[in-house]
Design a protein that fits this description.
The protein has 4 helices and 6 strands. The radius of gyration is 16 Å and the shape is flat. It has helices at 18-22, 26-40, 92-99, 103-106; strands at residues 2-8, 45-46, 58-63, 66-71, 81-88, 110-115. By secondary structure, the protein is α+β, with helices and mostly antiparallel strands.
Length: 119
């Protein structure tokens, strides 16, 4: 079964946020890079893409046939999606195990594991 792992950054420091990233030791920074490298080399993983910060988002709604767009994300920034990847796994337990290896899961964020509906 194929799963999509949605990475919710939360308060996780990333290289795109130099002030927060700088609070991590060099060893912690290297560990984050190594964790993502290892995840991307895991059999069954199809790399996704990193998303731009939430403040670059535009939220679109249609109400009474009119398209309305608003600058910024729909969700609170702490809940914003930061990236994703796909994982072909035998079962949900394998996908959960992989999700637990994503640095965001242990550094203030979360990883949502969702089965992909294939038709």
């Amino acid at each position: 079964m194929k799963y999509m792992l949605l990475i919710h950054q939360g308060t996780t420091p990333t290289p795109r946020s130099p002030q927060e990233w700088g609070r991590l030791s060099e060893q912690e920074q290297k560990a984050v890079y190594e964790d993502y490298r290892a995840i991307n080399e895991t059999p069954g993983v199809s790399s996704g893409l990193e998303l731009a910060p939430p403040d670059t988002a535009t939220t679109v709604r249609v109400k009474d046939g009119e398209t309305l767009s608003t600058d910024g994300p729909f969700v609170e920034t702490k809940e914003a999606l930061g990236g994703y990847f796909f994982f072909e796994a035998e079962d949900i337990d394998s996908a959960i195990e992989l999700a637990a290896r994503v640095p965001a899961a242990r550094m203030g964020g979360a990883v949502e594991v969702r089965p992909v509906v294939e038709r």
